[in-house]
Amino acid sequence: MGPGKSIIFFDEGIADRKLLGGKGAGLAEMTKLGIPVPPGFTITTEVCRLFYKGGERLPDGLMEEVRRAMKRLEELTGKRFGDPENPLLVSVRSGAAISMPGMMDTVLNLGLNDRVAEGLARATGDERFAYDAYRRFIQLFGKIVLGVEESLFNRALEEIKRERGAEYDTDLDAEALKELVKRYKAIILERLGRPFPEDPYEQLEGAIAAVFRSWNSKRCVDYRRQFKITPDIADGTAVNVVAMVFGNMGPDSSTGVVFTRDPATGEKGLYGDYLPNAQGEDVVAGIRTPRPIQELEAESPRLYRELVEISERLERYFKYPQDIEFTIERGKLWILQTRNAKMNAAAKIRSSVDMAKEGIISKEEAILRVEPEELEQLLHKRVDPKFNGEALAVGVPASPGAASGIAVFDADEAERRHRAGERVILVREETKPEDIHGFFASEGILTSRGGKTSHAAVVARGMGKPCVVGCSGISIDPVERLFRAGGVVVKEGDLITIDGGSGKVYLGQVPLVEPELAGGLPELLAWADEFRRLGVRANADTPEAAALARKFGAEGIGLCRTERMFNAPDRLPVVVEMIMAEDEAQRRAALGKLEPMQKGDFKEILRAMEGLPVTIRLLDPPLHEFLPNVEELLRSLEAAKGKPDEEERLRRMLARARALAEVNPMLGHRGVRVGVTHPEIYEMQVRAILEAAAELAREGVAVKPQIMIPQVAMAEELEAVKRIVDGVRADVEGRYGVKLDLKFGTMIEVVRACLMAGDIAKYAEFFSFGTNDLTQGTFSFSREDAENKFLPKYMERGILAFNPFQTIDKGVARLMAICVQEGRRTRPDLEIGICGEHGGDPASIEICHELGLTYVSASPYRIPVARLAAARAAIRRRGAKGAAGLA
Amino acid sequence: MGPGKSIIFFDEGIADRKLLGGKGAGLAEMTKLGIPVPPGFTITTEVCRLFYKGGERLPDGLMEEVRRAMKRLEELTGKRFGDPENPLLVSVRSGAAISMPGMMDTVLNLGLNDRVAEGLARATGDERFAYDAYRRFIQLFGKIVLGVEESLFNRALEEIKRERGAEYDTDLDAEALKELVKRYKAIILERLGRPFPEDPYEQLEGAIAAVFRSWNSKRCVDYRRQFKITPDIADGTAVNVVAMVFGNMGPDSSTGVVFTRDPATGEKGLYGDYLPNAQGEDVVAGIRTPRPIQELEAESPRLYRELVEISERLERYFKYPQDIEFTIERGKLWILQTRNAKMNAAAKIRSSVDMAKEGIISKEEAILRVEPEELEQLLHKRVDPKFNGEALAVGVPASPGAASGIAVFDADEAERRHRAGERVILVREETKPEDIHGFFASEGILTSRGGKTSHAAVVARGMGKPCVVGCSGISIDPVERLFRAGGVVVKEGDLITIDGGSGKVYLGQVPLVEPELAGGLPELLAWADEFRRLGVRANADTPEAAALARKFGAEGIGLCRTERMFNAPDRLPVVVEMIMAEDEAQRRAALGKLEPMQKGDFKEILRAMEGLPVTIRLLDPPLHEFLPNVEELLRSLEAAKGKPDEEERLRRMLARARALAEVNPMLGHRGVRVGVTHPEIYEMQVRAILEAAAELAREGVAVKPQIMIPQVAMAEELEAVKRIVDGVRADVEGRYGVKLDLKFGTMIEVVRACLMAGDIAKYAEFFSFGTNDLTQGTFSFSREDAENKFLPKYMERGILAFNPFQTIDKGVARLMAICVQEGRRTRPDLEIGICGEHGGDPASIEICHELGLTYVSASPYRIPVARLAAARAAIRRRGAKGAAGLA
Fold it and tell me: Which residues of A63-74 are buried (b: 16+ CB within 10 A; e: fewer)?
């Protein structure tokens, strides 16, 4: 034997999970608390390790110790193991440091044999109970310890039921069960050539070894691999030997399960059911309907009070809503197990907030208890979880939330129907910038092509609209205005429902449930705000999105994209005119038409965010994105034959599109590169922003615009744009007679900008990480290409542990750390944010906290997630190393 | 006046360039050496600064100092300023710390007035000489000091020549020149309302101020801006007042210019010409033919010896071949100026090597004297510099060297004609991988489209073949098989010449000169090898290129690209078959056909580089590069109508090409990403390499293959490929019974690989920087797009000081430094090279030296450049900070 004790009783006051496993430690803990737990002991996990070291044999001397322990158990229970007069029965249960529900084996009612069964029948006055327990024990023991196929037992059971005309197991009487016991024993003798062991200690030895063996069963090994349970977390199972108690010993016996709070709502109070005169199995069998626990109060106020009291004590002790199994044996309450309750997000939030208010846990604990991702399900409509209708097709879930509406097949039709008061779902093979008005008009978007970064996905997420993309199971015919899925044809005007959380597409209206914003969430987020050090801003391009973000607690706008405004149907033609300009003068003329439109946009957004900073990014995409592509133009040209003017116009556009075409547009002529080569475009945008701000300032509205330049790689680029901004600012401030509260800064989304941050900070009052592009540059991965081609294989093969476009990679984090350090060295008060999609990812937010960023910016619907994640990071990282450690 | 002395005489032994300017310091230096220099003094640059501080006025008291200095000059010359009997005339010359040839003003013959001119005529007995000097002085003084338009003087000169029937100026006699002086003076009186100043000191004061003023003339300011001459380099001009000497005082006077070594060949010995009885101007006017300097020996052995002796002393003193101006005045030799001679590359190399052998300079100085880029012009055939025929068109010079041949318009024709013994130039709109056999068959390549990184440019450079790309001045008609340029039509078979150094395209055969490898270059490179610490390897994909590289001194192959081998016409169909495979089995079958071909390639290259390392990069480009593009396929499909089998084949290929298409191929599914998703491709290549090596090893050939993986971003990728290599290696070593001398390593061309170098070095025995891709990732610039679109504007606007794709940028260098540090921390003996095009760029090689790289790898023709650059870096960087400083 090893150095430690092999066997520890529940009442020894030791509750070491690693040594005793979760179940043993829990039972010991409850025993210590004076909770009525059936007596018993634990054979430690150390013995399990010795079992495997010795070639799957129980260590020498163990069974002597077990015998001594059983003697003590007899003393504690006043019963005797193997004694027909007053028999002690035990359960032999597994239990590792980490719960692996249902993976390992358990044997109940151990200690029964022919004589003991007869004695038990006498002692309880219930023959049927005794033989029912006996036949169940033989079946379980035969299967688990002796390795006899379960089907043989089941066949024997079915046979006897047929013979006796019994419909249910419970229809068998004591005599029939006695006969069944005989037949079970015959099966064992036939299969093994030796009889079922009548000796209780032989039974016990076999059961202990069987539980140890189950630790290395294939399903257990697979489970541990799947959930990354390594030996440092849990190494072997313990074996718990527990005195049996019975809930089926008559009308004053029962069994049940209760929660200390409603696992669906989090509401405080005992919640659960029980079954009189029953065993746990009977509940599962579903033959009898359990009663709500409250009925126990009427039946036995004493027992009910005792249960309530114990539940409350357990919850207070474990500081978590508990899921408790109990049995009442002839008027005596026994607690068999307690564990932390599994709850949905709403219940978790409500119970955590309540428990903090009740003083059971601290606010920090409440915050750490709720996973930020869980909030997401509360912030969107979703398909009623009780609905289980079949989906027409399943695509890629691209933007959460569910929506119902009639299918329409182009953006104009969507707008028309929307104006007419209909709710529509826009269905397209893929979407384009010119479909933008269709997005505004729709409840949700469904595409048959594209991935999570397709145009449809990105725009829908930005607007917080449900979206399913890449739904290859539907085949769209835009001419006939219908789609086919399986055998179904969905025509324009037919009602469909999409679920952007699961990717499912349903025919017709499916029941949806509303987002639940109540139930403690506002309080939890208010507490989170007390702890977080990171600011939280929103990515929002419209006044509506800005207002929504503000409602969700955004402290400003971290990213307002101006190119979206270029795509509105009334503007795109002017943008095209600007791009087609033959010289700067023509270009300036077109820009002159755009300027008042942009100014109007900015005024609305700045007004919506009064008093808060609004970071506006100047034009980012390459100009060719605003032109139809070459293939489209070729088609249009074909169609325009015979109309010389139109042909000429298209021919010119084709030439321009060809001249602007790029091999790698992601790395092409875009962002500040356009700003440097066509300064008049940025000048127009800067003027629109500053005049909007100045007009509002004169109205007395407090505005804080921040001008942000995309794609900067060199301090010199930023310097060139700053000269434009300074010039326009001086002019506008002079003309309006106001002093603007303006900041000038840059996206950090190019690798070089991180490396040269010290130089760049000379011209920038703020940085904002664009981690999507930064990740692309760091990995040399084009996200669009990677996510469709090799990235899934990389994750599958374990070359990547996670998708770096969802969570910040360590290489990218290192670049960010260099940037933060060097930027702040030049400008200690440098404001540094993040506005890539990572800004809404909890794991990435923790990295941002560690890097010492000023704020994260996320889409409006992710604001609560970000607030919570930022607080959790602050709480968890107290005293941890800062950015310097990462660099 | 300021604290220092304002005036310093040449004989004071002070030769401070910053204070005295280059000319003054040179004259002082020569005076110190006892060289006969006309006496004189320098008014310092400090006075110039005071001149500007005081609002363009000479400082108080300066003219008193000048008067005192003139007294001393009178003593030194025995002549008197303004004295008609024995007049002292002076030149007033500019001279800044940095030479700005021709930018500032000079006044000669100052001190002449009516009386002095008459006296000079008497004293020299040469009235014509005296009045010629006088009228030249008035003209120069009038223009420079008084600001009278030069055209007025020229008109007066032309008038008098017409009146006197004189053809040349020299046809005017003394009387006519006297008359001209009168008219000049009348012009000045009329223009200024005051007469020409007869007082020599008034003249001197005016001239000094005029020279100072010329420092801030527009052309001077522009020049300084252009050449980045900032005040810390040169701040103001000095003024040199020098006693005049005259080479036109009779037959025992002369003037000339000599070099101490032939500036065209570097051959040692006096080289130059002189003109008896003449002034410098007469040489420039070109009326009389100068005599070779050797004739002076016959005329006056004493003066010739004196000149030789002084030349040698000056060269030894300045340790550089000198360019010397001299005047002989009545038998007395005066040296007026000496400066370092301008030489072509051949002369520079030869003279530097000779001077080192003569003990004048050290080997290090010889190495530092030759710019590595200068070697390039010696290593290729080039158009005879004397040829000045007109070019048909000018394109982008993409690969140096000149070639003549008949124009052919496709690769197959090129091959046919080449086989028939003709020399051909391949002319295409642009080239594709499938044109590769045309490259092999051609002397040079000309395209009408594409830039320095187009396929044609890259492939031609790799092969060392002359290439002109993007020659938009020619319009190619591939159907008619001709091109037009200006009015000329060049048909297939017509002879043309291209110059890849200048981008020029000529009609017909143009005289070419052979590369000069002699003249000290081998010695210089041998010395360079003694000093350099960087190894030099070659980028070579063929046995021929490998042999050439070895001849040029390569110490191995740093980059052998395997995809080029895939493009050969006999292999491309098999590669396409591999790509079109429906499953792994089909793919393996196609790969099985490729394997022996690749093995053959590797055997030849490994054999050519016996004893030296050969780094072979596994497949890098995305697979779709080997398929025809979608547009081509659509055209082919159109053409295949009615042939169902062909249509079906093309349709399948089109589907595959569409499936493989990428938005940003540069960042797409390529390199190790293909190696990970299709491991059978890398496995085939590894097997081909290792079997080639094993077969040679059994023959007794010493081979050192190095397997290199492209595009690695993660240690996990490299680990996955290493498992393949280890497996194949064990198999091959076992089957052949040899132990291979093999290294396994990776390209470092992805930003993340630099940041995670410590992890990656666990699996890599060597790193090789691919700085082209690394620069793309660091800047988020697609090179192809950037160089055609915004990069030129960036350079023009000074946002980029140089093209980062030619010279390593500091941001990229910083990443490299991080990589070197962390890689070597994991594996101290890590071999680190560079194989991007930067490996042949001298400025980048210096950075590589500083970073502590093991070697650079460059195209064969750049090997000598790299050897020299590496030595220069080692010499210059002695004792400088290492890589740590950059990180």
Answer: eebbeebbeebb
Two structure tokens written together for A566: 């270029």
- pLDDT (average), residues A54-74: 95
- For B535-562, what is each residue's pLDDT tens digit? 999 999 989 889 989 989 999 999 999 9
> How many CB atoms sit inside 10 A of residue A340's CB?
13
- Provide the chain B residues 652-681 that lie in CB contact (below 8 A) with chain A: 662-669, 673, 676-677
Which of B664, B778, B814 is the closest to A665 by Cβ? Answer: B664
Q: Give the span between the Cα atoms of A303 and A315, in whole angstroms.
A: 18
Mutate to test the interface with B, among A630, A666, A785 (most CBs of B within 10 A): A785
Q: Does A622 touch chain B (CB under 8 A)?
A: no
Q: Which of B720, B779, B798 has its CB closest to that of A799? A: B720
Q: At what angle do helices B572-580 and B584-608 cross, to 10 degrees?
A: 150
Count of CB atoms situated within 10 Å of the CB of B139: 22
Flag if B666 and A664 touch (Cβ within 8 Å).
yes
* Active-site residue, from A220, A380, A418, A455: A455
CB pairs under 8 A between A and B: 168
Tokens encoding A129:
């109970």
Output the pLDDT for position B496.
96
Phi, psi at A219, each rounded to 5°: -65, -30
User: How far apart, in whole angstroms, are the C-alpha atoms of residue B69 and residue B241?
Assistant: 10
**What tokens appear for B434 in the block?**
């499938």
Q: Which of 271-300 (A) contact B at CB < 8 A?
A: none
Look up A848 and say whether it is catalytic: no
Report how far residue A695's alpha carbon sits from residue A596's, in angstroms, rounded to the nearest whole number: 13
- In chain A, residues with a C-beta closer than 8 Å to the C-beta of B668 are 782, 785-786, 789
Question: Cβ neighbours of residue A64 under 8 Å, at least 6 residues apart?
Answer: none
Residues of B with Cβ-Cβ distance to A776 under 8 angstroms: 667, 780
| Residue among A662, A676, A789 minimizing CB distance to B782 | A662
Q: Which of A471, A560, A835, A848 is catalytic?
A: A835
**Measured CA angle at A57 (ends A55, A60), to 5 deg:** 120
Residues of A in contact with B751 (CB under 8 A): 751, 777-780, 811, 815
CA B341, B347, B353 angle in degrees (round to 5)? 105
- Whether the CB-CB separation of B214 and B220 falls below 8 Å is answered with yes
Q: Which two tokens stand for residue B184?
A: 């000049």
Q: Are strands B396-399 and B393-394 parallel, antiparallel or unpaired?
A: unpaired
SS3 B148: coil
Cα–Cα dist B68/B74, whole Å: 10
This prediction has a pTM of 0.80
Nearest by Cα to B29 from B3, B5, B8:
B8
Closest CA to A797 of B723, B379, B412: B723
CB within 8 Å of A138: residues ≥ 6 apart: A153, A181, A184, A185, A188, A196
**Could you tell me where the beta strands, DSSP code E, fall in B697-848?**
704-709, 743-748, 766-769, 831-834
Could you report the predicted ipTM of this complex, rounded to two decimals? Answer: 0.80
Per-residue pLDDT tens for B582-636? Answer: 888 899 999 999 999 999 999 999 999 999 999 999 999 999 888 887 778 888 8
Under the banding of pLDDT at 50, 70 and 90, the label for residue B343 is confident
- From the CB of residue B388, how many other CB atoms can be counted at a distance below 10 Å? 7
The answer to whether the Cβ–Cβ distance between A815 and B785 falls below 8 Å is: no
Query: How would residue B453 be classed by pLDDT, with cut points 50, 70 and 90?
Result: low
Give the side-chain half-sphere CA count within 13 A for B581.
19
Contact A755 B814 (CB under 8 A): yes
Q: Each residue of A468-523: pLDDT tens digit?
A: 998 989 999 988 999 999 889 999 999 999 998 889 999 999 998 866 566 789 99
